[in-house]
Design the sequence.
């Protein structure tokens, strides 16, 4: 019996393992949403398509399984763009069904007509039209396969009238998910082993591409007495139960991580594509192992580039290496790491009840959140507090916008995570700027009954931007935010809300917030002039901040300079 293209697409999506579709219904996808209503798929009705893309991305990132979003032609599909870019950069397997105007109107500048292919081919692993009803299952199956195996977004474009076309659907197109293992050749491994044996101080620098190689990395570090530095995205996989972990490299990192990289004779980069060249060592040999050949040497000049997945490569490499008994390099890094951890804890100490430092909030959240909680942060300062103050224990999960750097991604991505894991605690660490950018989808939490927990770091400014301007010696401009009482906004929508502006009130409020069975929002008024200190404070940064002070005083903003000094250096 013939089926409509809409029915075929929906069935193929189900067969690929998807459980939900995020979007807003409308004209060119009405036949598609009708088919969804007769399937086992859940339609999650968001208020803005960007939130739908974020939510699908959050679900797919956390589960590793296919999530779907769908939108109408023109503005409907275009609203997905930023969320799709974020999701693709995160490596989350998401399928976007992007509809278009009817075929008979294509090419005549019909209202809402856009070239979806040109828009989405830039940042997807698959982007094709269904041009004939007989292609429907084949195109969707191959799109899903590309998303799942290449870890990214796949886009299928369907004209509105195509959904009503019919096909016998006799060809059994399937989604295949092979799991290959790849490593360098024996001669390449032998050469690498010689270089490692010759090096006095080896540091392992591991990224999210080594997420499956925790045990192999620990075994390698044990044999070499080597510290392991990890990228921010690899925190949840490589930090727990790792006695060789010394933290993170880069501007968001810590002193131990930065120094362990720069003191080494040889840095072994495993699944690491950290983008900032200035944080790679200038003198040490860098050896890079990655599954993607295009990643080799694109961030810093390297001594050797090898293709392989980290776990399989280390399984073959480690037995070839001579043990290094000298612990001096490792112990120096571990001593500094302990100092860094103590510093993060001390930064959260509160002596003034009227001044809440965001580190105090993050430290408390770390203590009271569930052992298997899922944390999703906005870009900017909430991301820093998550990375520095929320401990990874092997059960907790973390997601933030480290590659795309977009505002407003925290609670939309957390929606998808919470829907996928209804029995786990999911916490969105939101900036006030990010919250207000997409605040309308708080209504989605109520309508779709998503018991998400939202923590708003309310500092009334675009904090990271303000800090950037001040560090460059500028008087900050256009960063201030006039915010409402977010707890009252939440209550008006139907979400339980609490507001805290005194440190002594935070503990009780946080307990009530986390215990609330439905969606809940905690609005915490935190210090506006909090400096996000880099791992090493350079003389130029101090000088630039001082220059801000001079300019601010001359501009009549003396109180801000006093606050900056008191709240960051004199407390």
Sequence:
């Amino acid at each position: 019996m013939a089926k409509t293209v809409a029915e075929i697409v929906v069935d193929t999506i189900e067969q690929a393992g998807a459980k939900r579709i995020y979007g807003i219904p409308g004209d060119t996808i009405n036949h598609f949403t009708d088919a969804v209503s007769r399937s086992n798929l859940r339609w999650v009705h968001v208020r803005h398509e960007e939130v739908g893309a974020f939510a699908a991305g959050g679900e797919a990132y956390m589960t590793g399984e296919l999530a779907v979003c769908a939108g109408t032609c023109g503005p409907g599909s275009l609203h997905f763009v930023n969320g799709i870019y974020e999701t693709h950069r995160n490596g989350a397997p998401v399928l976007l069904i992007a509809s278009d105007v009817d075929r008979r109107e294509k090419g005549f500048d019909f209202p809402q007509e856009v070239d979806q292919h040109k828009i989405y081919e830039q940042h997807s692993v698959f982007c094709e039209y269904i041009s004939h009803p007989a292609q429907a299952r084949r195109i969707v199956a191959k799109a899903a396969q590309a998303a799942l195996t290449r870890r990214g977004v796949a886009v299928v474009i369907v004209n509105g009238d195509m959904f009503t076309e019919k096909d016998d659907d006799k060809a059994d197109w399937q989604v295949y998910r092979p799991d290959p293992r790849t490593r360098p050749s024996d001669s390449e491994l032998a050469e690498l082993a010689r270089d490692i044996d010759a090096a006095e101080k080896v540091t392992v620098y591991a990224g999210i591409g080594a997420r499956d190689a925790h045990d192999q990395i620990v075994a390698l570090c044990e044999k070499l007495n080597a510290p392991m530095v990890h990228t921010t995205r690899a925190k949840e996989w490589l930090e727990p139960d790792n006695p060789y972990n010394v933290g993170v490299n880069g501007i968001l990192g810590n002193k131990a991580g930065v120094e362990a990289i720069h003191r080494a004779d040889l840095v072994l980069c495993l699944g690491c594509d950290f983008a900032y060249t200035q944080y790679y060592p200038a003198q040490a040999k860098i050896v890079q192992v990655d599954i993607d050949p295009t990643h080799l040497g694109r961030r810093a000049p390297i001594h050797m580039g090898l293709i392989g997945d980290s776990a399989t490569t280390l399984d073959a490499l480690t037995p070839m290496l001579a043990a290094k008994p000298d612990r001096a390099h490792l112990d120096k890094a571990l001593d500094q790491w302990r100092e860094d951890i103590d510093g993060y804890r001390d930064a959260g100490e509160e002596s003034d009840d009227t001044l809440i430092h965001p580190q105090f909030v993050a430290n408390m959240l770390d203590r009271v959140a569930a052992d298997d909680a899922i944390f999703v942060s906005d870009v900017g300062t909430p991301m820093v507090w998550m990375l520095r103050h929320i401990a990874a224990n092997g059960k907790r999960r973390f997601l933030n916008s480290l590659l795309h750097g977009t505002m407003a991604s925290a609670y939309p991505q957390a929606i998808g995570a919470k829907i996928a894991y209804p029995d786990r605690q999911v916490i969105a660490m939101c900036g006030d700027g990010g919250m207000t950018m997409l605040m309308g989808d708080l209504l989605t939490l109520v309508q779709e009954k998503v018991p998400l927990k939202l923590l708003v770091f309310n500092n009334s400014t675009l904090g990271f931007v303000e800090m950037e301007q001040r560090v460059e010696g500028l008087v900050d401009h256009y960063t201030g935010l006039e915010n409402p009482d977010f707890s009252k906004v939440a209550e008006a929508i139907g979400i339980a809300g609490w507001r805290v502006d005194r440190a002594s009130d935070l503990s009780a409020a946080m307990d009530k917030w986390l215990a609330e069975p439905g969606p809940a929002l905690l609005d915490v008024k935190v210090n506006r002039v909090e400096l996000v200190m880099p791992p090493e404070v350079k003389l130029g940064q101090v000088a630039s901040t001082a220059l801000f002070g001079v300019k601010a005083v001359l501009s009549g903003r003396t109180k801000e300079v006093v606050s900056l000094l008191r709240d960051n250096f004199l407390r």
